[in-house]
Amino acid sequence: METGIAEQAERRETGAAGAAEEATDAASETAETTDSTETTQTTVEVKLTGHVRSAVGTHRVEFTFAGETLRAFLDAFFAAYDVRDLVIAEREADATTRGWARVEQPPGTWRKNPEGEQTRPYARVLVNGVFNENLDGFDTRLEDGDRVALMKPFLYCV
Predict the structure, then answer these.
(1) What tens-digit pLDDT sequence spans the chain (158 residues)?
(2) CA terminus-to-terminus distance, the chain
(3) Which residues pair with 72 in a beta bridge?
(4) 130 has which bridge partners?
(5) Residues 117 and 137: beta-carbon distance below 8 Å
(6) What distance in Å separates the CA atoms of residue 22 and residue 30, rounded to the nearest whole number?
């Protein structure tokens, strides 16, 4: 009978040790998951023209932000510099200009961002020299060293 009690006690100790080991493994898996979900910091070179350059006060800025998409960059940049209204149109009507001839089927491939992600007339957002509409829009992935241009040219009528 003592042997049976000793065996049960040993099984309990082994079970407790196993449970502690499993808890440690689970904790390290959680720590690894937390480490992998940390926000990525991305640094890009920002080039500014026209009205955006005047508002920011310089033509070039190196900008670090949390995330790795154009959307994350724009949110962070517009929080740091109040130029969102110069570049982004909130409504479809704010993204178009008057005076263009209506064309039912324009030639070539035309892409535009969804409402709220379009630029104002004549303003553009480029990633490495390509309009964001021709990439993945605001979901375009950015990497360290990429160039982002925010353009809103001065227009003069003579």
Answers:
(1) 555 555 555 555 555 444 445 544 544 444 444 444 567 999 999 999 999 999 999 999 999 999 999 999 999 999 999 999 999 888 766 766 666 667 777 666 666 666 667 777 788 899 999 998 889 989 999 999 999 999 998 876 55
(2) 108
(3) none
(4) 127
(5) yes
(6) 12
